[in-house]
Amino acid sequence: MSDNLRITRDDLSKIADGNLRVIRAFEKLFKIVPDNTTDFTNSIGNATAKANISDGRSINNERTLKGSQVLLWLTM
After folding, report:
1. CA dist 30 → 10, 26, 34 (Å)
2. Would you state the pLDDT for residue 57?
3. Residue 8: what are its φ and ψ, rounded to 5°?
4. How far is residue 63's CA from residue 68's CA, in Å, rounded to a whole number?
5. Could you say which DSSP state residue 37 is in?
């Protein structure tokens, strides 16, 4: 099945009024942007999970520190 959403060089030529510099710039842009956003979605999900893990560790470390400070105070 062909992809009707793909922009051809002729389509770009119509948009850019035949300006080859603009056409080449768009072609480079389309090479950078992936065809599928699944990779981005997975990356965002992984980043979110890592951020949540870091938050949990920070909270745990803060509780441990406060507990240690209380124990230190009690030993004085």
Report:
1. 15, 6, 8
2. 93
3. -90, 170
4. 9
5. S
3-state class (DSSP) for residue 1: coil
Confidence (pTM): 0.42
Task: Give the angle 19-21-24 at the CA atoms, nearest 5°.
Answer: 110
8 A C-beta contact, residue 21 and residue 35 = no
Q: In a 3-state reduction of DSSP, which class is residue 29? A: helix
Task: Indicate the DSSP class of residue 9.
Answer: H
E strand or H helix that includes residue 72: helix 38-74
Give Cα 39 distance to the centre of its chain.
Answer: 9
Residue 47 burial class via C-beta count within 10 angstroms: exposed 0-12, middle 13-18, buried 19 and up: exposed
